[in-house]
Amino acid sequence: MTDTSQRTRPLRVLAAMSGGVDSAVAAARAAEAGHDVTGVHLALSANPQSFRTGARGCCTIEDSRDARRAADVIGIPFYVWDLADRFREDVVEDFVAEYQAGRTPNPCLRCNEKIKFAALLDKALALGFDAVCTGHYAKVLVREDGTRELHRASDLAKDQSYVLGVLDDRQLAHALFPLGDTVTTKDEIRAEAERRGLAVAKKPDSHDICFIADGDTQGFLAKRLGKAEGDIVDESGNRLGTHEGAYGFTIGQRKGLRIGTPAPDGKPRYVLDISPVTNTVTVGPADALDVTALTAVRPRWCGTAPAGPGTYTAQLRAHGEETEVTAELVDGHLEVTFAEPVRGVAPGQAIVLYDGTRVVGSATIASTVRVTAGAV
């Protein structure tokens, strides 16, 4: 198999430049490889702030200026495209609706699926570009029959294939990830940026959720959904306290419960269930979070869908570890059984299946089966 980051035929490439160091180096590498590269910064906020808050957030006016300066140094054309309305509808509103329904979404996956490799890619193809280039750490390999596979990055410590697990065949055919094939540390990427004269070499990484610049997810949701006082109860239904909105909690959460009454065994309690219908949050011991199986919906395959049941490894969080599973597609749903119980699995999260380093596909968790509490 060959790595598409090392394509021999020059391509017309649209490089998505966030204003950070990874996307700048990716664009520079694509240009150095001989591709005809154009940089584009996505304006995703209708009211961008002039400056980010510390290392949080992205897509600000400051970021667009950093991206433009990087494009100037690389020597490529540069544009700013306004996708704020599409981003609000497909990512932000989806994020709020999922929390309101008691689920825990991953907006980065939704952004890759709906914005970078849908809205952006569609526009790029319409303008005659061959591929969209990003600074993600992942690899696209081409098999002898011409089909493409998404694989983990060579540097597993920086691998971002989990958030790309929503990409299908068509999207992979037009994806370029120049950072995925090299085993380099972030310090080495920054050193490369500095050698190239890119001012973003020492710029802090953005983290958390890009459209919540201050990192206060609960405050962000409260502004949009309003306060709605409800009960916090134990597994027997005993009232332990109150909250100001069930949407502010996620399965497995320990901090911020504000329960005055200690547990009988003196051990910490965790969020076990969130009921948006009754606006109730149920808490209990850590071992009540152990999950043995789950059902996931809206599967997306990075290639041909599996023909029958199979054994894979699964990743449940962007920076989570792999765990062995058996999985089967049943009536359009993905039924997954874990070899060993896992903890803190929340509906709304994505499960991404792997065969070695190859990404098989992903799906959205709809329900789980627990060791002690049955289906949730």
TrEMBL record:
Q: Where in the cell is it found?
A: Cytoplasm
Give the site residues for Interaction with tRNA: H136, Q349
Q: Does the keyword Disulfide bond belong to this entry? A: yes
Pfam families recorded: tRNA_Me_trans (PF03054), tRNA_Me_trans_C (PF20258), tRNA_Me_trans_M (PF20259)
Keywords of this protein's UniProt record, alphabetized? Answer: ATP-binding, Cytoplasm, Disulfide bond, Nucleotide-binding, RNA-binding, Transferase, tRNA processing, tRNA-binding
Q: Where is the tRNA-specific 2-thiouridylase MnmA-like central domain?
A: 219-284
* InterPro entries according to UniProt: MnmA-like, MnmA-like_C, MnmA-like_central, MnmA-like_central_sf, Rossmann-like_a/b/a_fold
- The UniProt annotation puts the region (Interaction with tRNA) at 158-160
Provide one Gene Ontology biological process annotation: tRNA wobble position uridine thiolation
Q: Taxonomically, which superkingdom? A: Bacteria
The positions flagged as active site in the entry are: C111, C210
CC per GO annotation: cytoplasm
- Quote the catalytic activity from the record: S-sulfanyl-L-cysteinyl-[protein] + uridine(34) in tRNA + AH2 + ATP = 2-thiouridine(34) in tRNA + L-cysteinyl-[protein] + A + AMP + diphosphate + H(+)
Residues that bind ATP: A16, M17, S18, G19, G20, V21, D22, S23, L42, G135
Q: Which GO terms describe its molecular function?
A: ATP binding; tRNA binding; tRNA-uridine 2-sulfurtransferase activity
Give TM regions: none
Principal cellular location given in the protein's record: cytoplasm
EC number of this enzyme: 2.8.1.13
| NCBIfam families registered for this protein in UniProt | PRK00143.1, trmU
Q: Which family does it belong to?
A: Belongs to the MnmA/TRMU family.
Q: What is this protein called?
A: tRNA-specific 2-thiouridylase MnmA
Q: Which organism is it from?
A: Streptomyces fumanus
